[in-house]
């Protein structure tokens, strides 16, 4: 059974800026560039399908408009989530979580599934992601374990409860925009394995405090070689990047 830690370099939103975020094309671009770990943003469609989108609306990253929450998966599959990026990706559909899990199983790579709920669906989405991943891991016992994260404490609490009920060993990470000692208490209360935060929050004393609690520290979104070098020298455990060329530039 593979129990190695999540790799240090994580492709942000599947493939960083190389391809349209949160699509299968993005994951393929990340894989081609040599990445073995991928972050993406997961929410629920109106009919209960888990799928990938960062924003609350479809406006920025698709050819559709308006809030994402009312859309059913059968219609979401038909939107163009690629043209906004570049003509080469015209017609690329949004990805479902199941498609991404298939990709992970096929290529034996790590996922960091960021639970990004529609407003008011925090607990429901956290529980749904946890249940789906627990079931997938039961079917794929030797696959690298996905890491679930969220800015939503409620989503992570619901994920924790579902995982405990299923006795499933899926790691959680608490995402915070700003660091203070209180977030360590919250992460520990969730039984999290890590804390994820903005790279500008990371200082040697923060790394030391997080590690002293037995937690990993990962930072988003690191797009400059100098930043990456300094953060890794400070002892950071992982970084999310939009620059697929960055690991080769260190
Ligand atoms: O999960 C790390 C990072 O993706 C969090 O920020 O806004 O890019 O989802 P965001
Ligand atoms: Mg994200």
Question: In words, what does this structure look like?
Answer:
With 250 residues, this protein is α/β, with parallel strands linked by helices. The protein is 33% helix and 17% strand. It has one domain (9-56, 95-249): Alpha-Beta Barrel (TIM Barrel), CATH 3.20.20.190. The longest helix is centred in the middle third of the chain and has 18 residues, at 122-139. The chain is globular, with a radius of gyration of 17 Å. The relative contact order is 0.14. The site of SN-glycerol-3-phosphate (G3P) has 10 residues, from strand 2.
How would you summarize what this structure contains?
This protein is of the alpha/beta class.
How many structurally independent domains?
1
Give a count of the beta strands, DSSP E runs of length 2 or more: 9
Secondary-structure class: alpha/beta
Radius of gyration: 17 Å
Query: What CATH architecture label applies?
Result: Alpha-Beta Barrel
* Largest sheet: number of strands, sense, barrel closure: 9 strands, mixed
What are the bound molecules? SN-glycerol-3-phosphate, magnesium ion
Uncertain parts:
none
What's the CATH C level? Alpha Beta
Helical proportion? Answer: 25-40%
Backbone shape: globular
The average pLDDT value, as a whole number, equals: 97
CATH topology: TIM Barrel
- The multimeric state of the shown protein is single chain
Strand order of the largest sheet: 1-9-8-7-6-5-4-2-3
Beta-strand residue fraction: 15-25%
Order of helices and strands: EHEEHHEHEHEHEHEHE
Q: CA-to-CA gap between the ends?
A: 31 Å
Q: In CATH, what is the homologous superfamily?
A: Phosphatidylinositol (PI) phosphodiesterase
């Amino acid at each position: 059974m593979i129990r190695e830690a999540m790799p240090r370099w994580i492709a942000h939103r599947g493939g960083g800026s190389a391809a349209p975020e949160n699509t299968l094309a993005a994951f393929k671009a990340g894989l081609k560039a040599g990445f073995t770990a991928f972050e993406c943003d997961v929410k629920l469609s109106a009919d209960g399908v888990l799928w990938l989108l960062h924003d609350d609306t479809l406006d920025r990253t698709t050819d559709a408009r308006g809030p994402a929450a009312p859309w059913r998966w059968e219609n979401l599959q038909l939107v163009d989530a690629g043209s906004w990026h570049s003509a080469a990706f015209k017609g690329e559909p949004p990805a479902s979580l199941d498609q991404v899990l298939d990709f992970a199983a096929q290529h034996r790579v790590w996922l960091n599934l960021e639970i990004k709920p529609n407003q008011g669906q925090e607990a429901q989405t956290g529980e749904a992601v946890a249940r789906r991943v627990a079931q997938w891991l039961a079917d794929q016992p030797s696959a690298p374990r996905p890491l679930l994260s969220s800015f939503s404490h409620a989503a992570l609490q619901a994920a924790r409860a579902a995982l405990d009920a299923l006795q499933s060993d899926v790691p959680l990470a608490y995402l915070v925009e700003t660091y203070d000692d209180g977030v360590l208490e919250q992460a520990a209360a969730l039984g999290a394995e890590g804390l994820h935060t903005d790279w500008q929050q990371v200082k040697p004393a923060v790394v030391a405090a997080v590690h002293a609690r037995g937690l990993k520290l990962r930072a988003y979104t690191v797009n400059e070689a100098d930043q990456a070098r300094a953060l890794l020298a400070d002892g950071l455990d992982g970084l999310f990047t939009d620059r697929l060329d960055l690991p080769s530039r260190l």
